[in-house]
Amino acid sequence: RLSTEYLRALPKAEVHCHLEGCVPPETARRLAERHGVTLPAGARDGGDRYLFRNFDEGLEIYVAVSNSMQTRDDFRAVTYESLVAGAAGGLRYREIAFNPQNHPELAYAEMMDGILAGAREARAEAGVESRIIVAINRELGGEAALALVREVIAHPLDEVVAIGLDSNELAGRPSEFVAAYDLAREAGLKLTAHAGEHGDSTEMVECLDLLRVDRIDHGYAALLDADLLSRTVASQIPYSACWFVDYPEAEVEGRRRDVAAMAAAGLNMCLNSDDPALIGPEVHECFIDAAAHLDWDVEDAERHALSGLDACFADEATVERLR
Ligand code: ES4
Ligand code: ZN
């Protein structure tokens, strides 16, 4: 059995991690107090853990924590601290998604400036590389998404590599976002989207056929759709799977089974933390738990640890340097 020291030190890359899900409760409470934001009880009463029983409650905390990040320096500090925390567990590369629409009090350029400053500090001090995904909140609809993509394009930045689509999968079908994805693609951005975690495989097919995504975030519903499964095994489009779920133990077991089945089916899959502070485990803890449950040997561990680099949207020279 692989030791935790080995798995912690192993250089790892991940591509599915939400910035606002990287804020520890103590930091969230400090920011909320500073800016006069009321956090839900689950963010106030759990000490060093967030307390929630299902995805909706988790998302409610996520949005409240997002609302507590209101200045350029809040973004700088959260980005810096989250990357350093990852690097302490062997993280070498992270693609960070964030939701500008959940921070209406701050201009896009200011948020980005803070995030990129934090990323630069973490790169210099902890040797962790990063890129940014601007994530669309699907609950706010296609028009707002299009406006967001226009804003992204108006502020071109080398570190901003892609757009994503997240928040409640049951609140907005991918087909609503065709115009936003077309515009982003024309501007040279890469495309990813959450699908097949809470929604069914038809949403994943829409992501492939209508949004023409370069990657699928989650995607467990492919296991229930033989056509989609064989299609994506053949295409080898990357899936960014997440090892832990945020709610009861039964669902964690189900997730472990899904991830194991995806790998066994031959999908091009990498392992990610999703929301390390909100859910609890950092990326190295995902690897420690996965190694134990999937009975990895050294070869398996090394392959999984860098599979995020096969799925990532950084330039080739950066990827080669990290390999
Ligand atoms: C998220 Cl796991 C997940 N799914 C959708 N939206 C999200 N935002 C933060 N974490
Ligand atoms: Zn996610």
TrEMBL record:
Question: In the UniProt record, does the keyword Acetylation occur?
Answer: no
Q: Which cofactor does it need?
A: Zn(2+)
List each copy of the Adenosine deaminase domain by range: 11-323
Q: What are the record keywords, sorted?
A: Hydrolase, Metal-binding, Zinc
Q: Has UniProt tagged this entry with the keyword Metal-binding?
A: yes
State the PANTHER family in the record. ADENINE DEAMINASE
Family to which the UniProt record says this protein belongs: Belongs to the metallo-dependent hydrolases superfamily. Adenosine and AMP deaminases family.
Give the protein's recorded name: Adenosine deaminase
Q: Which organism is it from?
A: Streptomyces levis
